[in-house]
Inverse folding.
């Protein structure tokens, strides 16, 4: 049966070609659209990790829920000891402290509310590859009174690199403290809201400003993002009972979760549309092929072949076509993904962002396997109904098609 099915597939070149074209187009469309969406998720995640949150953060229990209003109540005082313990984990690349504060930034004419971070400059520079310096330079360990500010904040206060501004905050005991800082750089991240209020100063200056020696969070940078969940599980087992809590970058970046949800919905509908187009195109092609050959099938049954054999032959032919089309579509899709990725797709800034980016097509094994399965299964499903109809056509009626 399979040998005869292969001969029939090769004999009807025009019909086979039409069906293959529909399958290949659908499989390629699924691979490219799925790879495009996955690249968006990957790039957005990496930018957020390497510009704001790190891979995960360790803080006093309750900080992530209530610490924004009173970070001074959630200080880790033994941060150096804890840092050294975490750095012993093989998947961890670096651990750095951050001290958070809020207050006002004054340029001598007006002021703006800010959300500030005391950071360790050299270590943050290694982590912060996703942060774009739009003007000036990054902080370094020599910048005792230097600060970096977000692009939106710089625009609001009309500050440029080398300008001086006064930072006013409340200390933990309720008194006011103020220090003057020189702007060394202006940065942009993937979040416009963050850039409109963000100030970064050296951790030593933040500790002086707040009159404390503690930090609010220890930010963990991993060697590979794929290790996030395993390292988080290890840290939770080791420190959850010690008054600490650990959050990974997925929990820290609510913007990412909402963006993924939005794109997933949009491209999920696109994938359904492509699937329906493949199914309908293949069904139309298979229907035409089968009903044009009713006389041929009638002759087979008149010669003693059972209707079940005719049904099996039609299914075998379409299985061969489905396998060929799906395999060809996968190969073509991978080649196109590589070519498009080499060129790049210029993209406008996503929602709530100012930075454009270059998209690529990721080759995702699960997407490729799913596209192959769709091409094959759609072809087989499209053949079932026409094959069932032929099976139940009386031999006499089928033979009349030869007249």
């Amino acid at each position: 049966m399979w040998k005869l099915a292969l001969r029939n597939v090769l004999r009807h070149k025009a019909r086979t070609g039409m069906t293959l074209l529909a399958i290949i187009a659908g499989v390629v469309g699924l691979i490219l659209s799925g790879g495009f969406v996955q690249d968006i998720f990957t790039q957005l995640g990496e930018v957020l990790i390497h510009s704001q949150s790190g891979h995960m953060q360790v803080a006093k229990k309750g900080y992530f829920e209530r610490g924004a209003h009173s970070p001074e109540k959630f200080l880790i005082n033994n941060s150096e000891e804890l840092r050294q313990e975490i750095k012993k984990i093989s998947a961890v690349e670096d651990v750095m402290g951050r001290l958070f504060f809020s207050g006002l930034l004054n340029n001598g004419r007006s002021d703006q509310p800010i959300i500030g971070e005391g950071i360790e400059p050299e270590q943050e520079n290694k982590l912060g590859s996703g942060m774009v310096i739009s003007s000036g330079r990054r902080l370094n360990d020599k910048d005792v009174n230097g600060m970096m500010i977000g692009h939106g904040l710089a625009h609001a206060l009309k500050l440029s690199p080398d300008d001086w501004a006064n930072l006013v905050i409340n200390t933990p005991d309720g008194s006011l403290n103020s220090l003057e800082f020189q702007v060394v750089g202006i940065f942009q991240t993937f979040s416009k809201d963050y850039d409109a209020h963000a100030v970064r100063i050296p951790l030593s200056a933040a500790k002086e400003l707040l009159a404390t020696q503690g930090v609010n969070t220890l930010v963990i940078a991993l060697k590979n993002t794929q290790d996030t969940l395993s390292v988080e599980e290890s840290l939770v087992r080791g420190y959850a009972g010690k008054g600490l809590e650990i959050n990974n970058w997925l929990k820290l970046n609510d913007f990412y979760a909402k963006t993924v949800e939005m794109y997933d919905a949009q491209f999920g509908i696109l994938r359904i549309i492509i699937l329906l187009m493949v199914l309908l195109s293949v069904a139309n092609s298979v229907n035409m092929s089968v009903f044009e050959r009713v006389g041929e099938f009638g002759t087979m049954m008149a010669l003693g072949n059972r209707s079940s054999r005719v049904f099996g032959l039609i299914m075998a032919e379409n299985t061969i076509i489905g396998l060929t089309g799906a395999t060809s579509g996968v190969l073509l899709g991978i080649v196109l993904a590589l070519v498009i990725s080499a060129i790049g797709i210029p993209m406008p800034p996503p929602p709530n962002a100012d930075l454009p980016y270059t998209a690529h097509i990721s080759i995702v094994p699960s997407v490729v396997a799913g596209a192959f399965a769709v091409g094959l299964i759609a072809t087989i499903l499209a053949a079932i109904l026409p094959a069932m109809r032929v099976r139940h056509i009386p031999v006499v009626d089928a033979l009349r098609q030869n007249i």
Notes: Residues 348 and 369 are 30 Å apart (CA to CA). The longest strand covers residues 92-106. The chain is about 55% helix and 20% strand. The longest helix spans residues 13-53.
